[in-house]
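Renewal narrative, Specific Aim 1. Our central claim is that a sequence can be written position by position from structural information alone. The example that follows is taken directly from our test logs and has not been curated for this report. It begins with the structure tokens describing the chain, in the order in which they were read.
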């Protein structure tokens, strides 16, 4: 294990006590903590419905099903993301249609999205990459103009805002993820938010083995278990529920969300201060003019064009050797084996995404980092880049 890991959750006694209370209660699934967690996240996004699920991936899958996306349909999305954002399209037999990214925000470039729409396009799935919400308003307008739903993959962006609106409020539905490296964590877990009553009802049923929504709440689940209706299923469903233990953790984290986000801004600010004059690096770009309130998920720098994948990979390897946890965020989805083998993608198809992907380095990023940690990380990175300069001579 690295002396300085890539990520670490922010867990306090409040979270530990919340989980212990659930364990003492004997109610470990479909209980009051789930409902409270759903309400807290939905309220934060200005949405009517929150549906807690076992992962962000499960949430995206259920939205695809709930919107009726099927084989032969197309969904426009980004090649620069965690692979789950595209896998959920394949889960329902549809085709992901990739478009290249904006080199500044790293989100999909809106004009390319508009140009990719065809009669087979049934949705736009937009990712707020690394917590950056840029272009969400433009993408929502494009979706509205073509009368297709915008799905927000907000798994990296909880608590952010764009153009005066909270992340998660732009699309027909949005999904958040709560893996341990996210802004808040439930260990494993996710949340769908939407104002669409019908979609919410379907997602609640789908997460609970296709049972009717009427028995998806805590009180109804207890009652139905004793009447036999627990074994009645209205549709093909899945076990995508979130446990009460995880939900309790989520409630405690949501109650500290603003504090957590402030800590992450502080860490990002320390990095910015120390790295802003480096000629070898491109730093994360926060949109100017107060339009965005960035929710920092990771701190990803990019090497400039004088470096390539070989040099970047060597820097990562050497930093890890010096016990500093770093990673490459993200390998392009279209060049991963399941997509190359299925669709025949080749290097060069999406040049901006590929150029960015070959040069990214995610630095350690979590709330407990202080100036001493940042000094060591930055010094180690500087030494590795100096080594690369010497190798070029």
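The sequence written for that structure reads:
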């Amino acid at each position: 294990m690295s002396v300085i890991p890539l990520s670490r959750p922010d867990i306090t006694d409040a979270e530990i006590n919340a989980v212990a209370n659930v364990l003492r209660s004997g109610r470990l699934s479909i209980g009051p903590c789930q409902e409270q967690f759903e309400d807290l996240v939905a309220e934060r996004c200005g949405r009517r419905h929150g549906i807690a699920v076992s992962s962000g991936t499960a949430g995206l899958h259920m939205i695809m099903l709930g919107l009726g996306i099927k084989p032969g349909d197309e969904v426009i999305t980004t090649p620069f993301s965690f692979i789950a954002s595209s896998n959920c399209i394949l889960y329902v037999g549809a085709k992901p249609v990739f478009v290249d990214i904006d080199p500044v925000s790293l989100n999909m470039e809106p004009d390319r999205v508009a140009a990719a729409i065809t009669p087979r396009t049934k949705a736009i799935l937009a990712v707020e990459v690394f917590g950056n919400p840029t272009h969400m308003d433009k993408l929502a307008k494009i979706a509205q103009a073509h009368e297709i739903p915008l799905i927000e993959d907000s798994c990296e962006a909880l608590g952010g805002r764009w153009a005066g609106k909270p992340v998660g409020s732009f699309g027909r539905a949005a999904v958040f993820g709560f893996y341990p490296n996210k802004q808040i964590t439930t260990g494993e877990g996710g949340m769908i938010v939407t104002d669409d009553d019908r979609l919410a009802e379907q997602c609640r049923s789908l997460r609970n083995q296709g049972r009717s929504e009427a028995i998806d709440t805590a009180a109804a689940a207890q009652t139905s278990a004793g009447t036999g209706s627990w074994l009645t299923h209205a549709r093909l469903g899945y076990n995508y529920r979130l446990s009460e233990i995880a939900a309790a953790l989520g409630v405690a984290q949501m109650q500290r969300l603003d504090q957590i986000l402030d800590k992450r801004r502080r860490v990002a600010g320390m990095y910015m201060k120390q790295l802003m004059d480096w000629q070898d690096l491109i730093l994360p770009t926060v949109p100017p003019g107060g339009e965005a309130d960035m929710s920092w998920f990771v701190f990803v720098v990019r090497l400039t064009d004088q470096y390539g994948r070989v040099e970047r990979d060597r820097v990562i390897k050497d930093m890890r050797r010096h016990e500093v946890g770093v990673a490459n965020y993200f390998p392009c989805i279209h060049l991963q084996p399941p997509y190359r083998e299925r669709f025949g993608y080749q290097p060069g198809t999406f040049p901006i995404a590929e150029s960015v992907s070959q040069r990214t380095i995610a630095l350690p990023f979590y709330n407990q980092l202080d100036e001493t940690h940042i000094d060591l990380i930055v010094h180690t990175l500087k030494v590795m880049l100096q080594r690369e300069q010497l190798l070029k001579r």
